[in-house]
Target: High-potential iron-sulfur protein
Amino acid sequence: MITRNRRTFILQAAGLCAALATTGSAFAAPAAVDESDATAKSLGYRVKASSVDAGKFPKYQAGQRCANCRFYTGAAGEAAGPCPMFPGKAVAADGWCNVYAQRA
Model:
């Protein structure tokens, strides 16, 4: 009886450790998009919308930023959040890219 309880305990402890190990990575914040990233360069992404070169990106208008773009899915008030243009990464709420579309 003692052997069976010990085996059960070891198996359950191993399962718990595995579950905790995978859960920890699920709660980790996604990496921020770097302006030097290939996708970021192709989309003209800037961490600060105020640093967008309006001559190079004539579509840009003052007041446009990721936080008020229809593609941005971050929570209101957060500094960064997800965007489908950069899967698995977070864009700055104050950022901008050439795919910007005003939220309805």
About this structure: Residues 30-92 form a domain with the High-Potential Iron-Sulfur Protein; Chain A fold (CATH 4.10.490.10). The mean pLDDT is 87. Helices lie at 2-26, 38-43. Strands lie at 31-32, 80-82, 89-92.
